[in-house]
Amino acid sequence: MDQKPELHVLLAGPRGFCAGVDRAIKIVEEALRRYGAPVYVRHEIVHNRFVVEALERQGAVFVEELDEIPDDGQPVVFSAHGVPKAIPAEAERRQMFFLDATCPLVSKVHREAEHHFARGRHILLIGHAGHPEVIGTMGQLPPGAVTLVEDEAQARSVEPPRDRPLAFITQTTLSVDDTAEMVDILRARFPEIAAPAKEDICYATTNRQAAVKAIATRVDMMIVVGAPNSSNSVRLKEVAARAGCPRAIMVQRGRELDLALVDGVSRIGVTAGASAPEVLVEEVLNRLRERYALTTEEVIVAEEKIIFKLPAALTAEPAI
């Protein structure tokens, strides 16, 4: 029997689930445990089909809008990305029992936006158009209160109202380096612009990008486990390329990995976006084992011990 060629795998650490994603999934699971199926979820709870399908098997029903949900008294969960204020207002109008799984770090950005607005500032939001988090953040304030800035070109050309002071906030899942460059441009153009008290890009996004940078130049190829609609996963692929990795690809499941892409590679990096569970990383490693004799090395740049509490409605003792 032919001996398998050797392949050295550098596993980025941290990788995979962050505290906000873990909390959001637990909210759906605990709601199902307490109240039974169905539990309705507006939008994918996190951007990962494996997670969504696993919750569907337990009785979660995913919808895009509240008008798809019957008035049957069952819980409604808002996704980790956050929602515009009009959504909970509509849920209250319909007397729905809703649970907000918005990541607390996204909620922090929402409060920042309200703070700036209350002080009469126009807000520049650095983020990606159409992303649920951006829609949710802009939806905290009246139309026209926030201007979206998507890239350096827009940072150079944006013309905010001249009759108000300015502030900027950012989506939590952006590229740390790209965002820093946009912020530098905005600060050069608008020296008085108010900045967040603490950076909006979340600890998990920052740590996962730092781990990718730590291995990018040590490998011939990087595999990012994540979904194409997951902002933080897409950023990991971009960060790997920018940091000097010759090739970076994304897969959602191990079976998607075309082993022909790994031909001639002796060292490979593996990471996972914040909404991808570790079981999917194991799938990728098992796929590689079909053709290669693997050795693995963990490269850990930070230890994460943050845990976010569940909503009070899910932790209170049920009434007897």
Structure notes:
The protein is of the alpha/beta class. It has helices spanning 19-35, 49-58, 86-93, 104-118, 132-138, 152-157, 176-189, 203-216, 231-242, 278-289, 312-315; strands spanning 6-13, 39-42, 60-63, 76-78, 98-100, 122-126, 146-149, 166-170, 221-225, 248-251, 267-272, 293-300. The chain folds into three domains: 6-17 and 203-300, 3-Layer(aba) Sandwich (Cobalt-precorrin-4 Transmethylase, domain 1), CATH 3.40.1010.20; 19-103, Rossmann fold (3-Layer(aba) Sandwich), CATH 3.40.50.11270; 105-189, 4-hydroxy-3-methylbut-2-enyl diphosphate reductase, catalytic domain (Cobalt-precorrin-4 Transmethylase, domain 1, 3-Layer(aba) Sandwich), CATH 3.40.1010. It contains eleven helices and twelve strands. The model has no long low-confidence stretch (mean pLDDT 96).
Summarize the structure.
The chain is α/β, with parallel strands linked by helices and 320 residues long. Helix content is 37%, strand content 18%.
Percentage of β-strand residues: 15-25%
Secondary-structure element sequence?
Answer: EHEHEEHEHEHEHEHHEHEEHEH
* Strand order, largest beta sheet: 10-9-11-1-12
- Helix/strand/pairing category: alpha/beta
The total domain count is: 3
CATH class of the largest domain: Alpha Beta
CATH topology of the largest domain: Cobalt-precorrin-4 Transmethylase, domain 1
Find the CATH superfamily of the largest domain. Answer: 4-hydroxy-3-methylbut-2-enyl diphosphate reductase, catalytic domain
* Helix proportion: 25-40%
Helical run tally? 11
Q: Give average pLDDT, whole number.
A: 96
For the largest beta-sheet, the strand count, sense and barrel status come to:
5 strands, parallel
Basic shape: flat
The appropriate CATH architecture of the largest domain is 3-Layer(aba) Sandwich
Number of strands: 12
Task: Using the CA coordinates, give the radius of gyration.
Answer: 21 Å
